[in-house]
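Hi R.,

Here's the chain you asked about this morning:
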Amino acid sequence: MRRRPGGLVVIVYAASFGLTAAALGHVAWAGLEQRGIALAFGVFIAVGELARSGSLPGVGEPPVLEEPWGREPAPLGSAGALAYALLGDCAGQPTSHGVLQVVAVVLAGALAGAVPHVARGRGPSLDHVVRRVLTAGFAAVCFQPLYNSRELDRHAGHGPYYALFLLVLLVLTALCDAVLTAALLRARTLPHGVRRMGGTPVPYGPLLRDELRALLGIGSAVCATGAVMALAVAVAGLWALPVFCVPLLLTQLSFRRYTAVRTTYRQTIASLARATEIAGYTRPGHAHRVAALSTAVGREMGLSGPDLTVLEYAALMHDIGQLSLLDPVAEGATAGLPVAEQRRIALLGGAVVRQTGVPAAVAAVVEQQADPYRDQPLPARIVRAVNAYDDLTGGSGGSAGGALTALERLRLGTGHDYQPEVVESLARVLARGGLAPVPPG
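And here is the predicted structure, written out as C-alpha cells:
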C-alpha cells in the first residue's frame, strides 16, 4: 500500500525530532563534554548561519526556478557542522564528545544564527534545519563511535587509510543529504489527496539529479572544507577555526553577491516578458503562467538543471515576437493564427531574444514554436503545448470543465502540432494541481 503524500515528510521530521530530543536530553542530563570545543564550534556554526544568503523567490513568481547554486544558503555553517561531526583529536589531544552532543551543538548553533533572520521574517525553512540535524547526525554516527572506541586508530591509523576513510564518509554524507533533499522536495510538490484524485507524484529522478549536480559545485566545497577543518583542528587546535572563518566568510559573501546577480538577471528577463502584457498583446500573467506550468511539465518529463532553465526563459519570452505586430492578436492567442504568421512571429521573437544575452538555446526554442513538433527540441514542444493550453482556457485553468475541453483539443492535435507525451504529462501535472482525473484520449 502506498503512503499518503505527507507520509515521508512525517517520517523524516519524526526521525529529526526524535534525534533532537535524545540529544537535548543527553546534554541536559550528562552536561557538555569539553565545553570550550563545543562552544567554539557552536559559535562557528552560528556565524555561518548569520551570514547565510537571503531566500530566493518562490515558485510561481519570477524567477520561477531555484537553481542548484541557490540551494545551500549557509555553506560556512554546513562546513562547521560537518567538521564537528568528524572531529577526532584537538591539538593532539583526544576528544570525548559523542553523536548526541554533536547533534545538540549543531542544532544550537543553527538556531542561534537564525534568530536575526527570523526577526526579519527571512528565517530558514524547517526542512533546512531538519536536513542539517540529520546529515550532521549521519556523519557523527559513522565517525564518532569508531573514534571513541579506538577502532579507527587500530584499523586506519593517521595515514592515508584515515584520509581515505574520511573521503568515503564525506561521499556517503553528501549522498545522504542529496537523497533526503530530493525526497522532501518530492513530498512537498505532492499535495494531500492527489493520489486519491488520480494524480501522480513528481518524478523523483530529476529532483535527485538536480541535487547530485549541485554536489559538484558548492556541495563538494562544503564537504572538503569540513574535512580539512577537522584535520586542521586536530593538529593546530581551535585556533584553526578563526583562520578558516575569515576566508570562508569572504567566499560566502562573494557567493551571496553572485546569487543576487543571477536573481536580478532572472527578474530582468521576467520583467521583459511582461512587455507584451503591458502593451496589451497578451493576457495579464500569461507569460508567468506558461513558464510555471512548462517547468512543471519539464520536470514531469525528466528535465533538470540547465535544461529547465532554458525551458523557463523560453516560456517567459515565447510571445515577445508579438510586439512586431501592428494589430494585437485577439487576447494574444497565437495558436489560432495561420502557420505562416505563427512562424513569422516566432522568428521575430527569436531575433529579439538573441539581443538579450540569454543562451542561444533559448532563442532557438522561441524560433521553433511554429514548427511541427517532430522538428522541435523537447523544450519547444513543451512551451507550444502549454501556451496553447493557456490560450484555450483563457488563463483560467482552475475550471475543470474548461481544462478538460482544452486538453481534449490538444489531444486532437497530437498528429502534427503537439507531442502526445507532452500533452499527457501536462494532464498529469494539472491533475496534481487539483483537477479531476483526466482520462487518456
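One quick note: Confidence is low (pLDDT under 50) at residues 1-5, 54-70, 191-200, 434-441.

Cheers,
M.
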